[in-house]
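SAMPLE LOG
Freezer: B-3
Tube label: C17
Construct: single chain, 66 aa
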Amino acid sequence: MTTLAEIEAAIDALPASEKQHLLLHVAARLKAQGASLPDARSLSRDPMFDWMAEDEAAMRRFHPNA
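STRUCTURE (predicted):
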């Protein structure tokens, strides 16, 4: 693989567990090279609570007894 497009296609073919492992691997490499983290997003109160409510509703769909 020599292009970013080829690498992205290969990543798409991985199962979720291997994607997670790859993500952690890349993050560790970036940290070792001194890369900085992206700036934290600033969310106002209402959008944040809307997002949390959506997340809770989605969780209840998958785990009705939660």
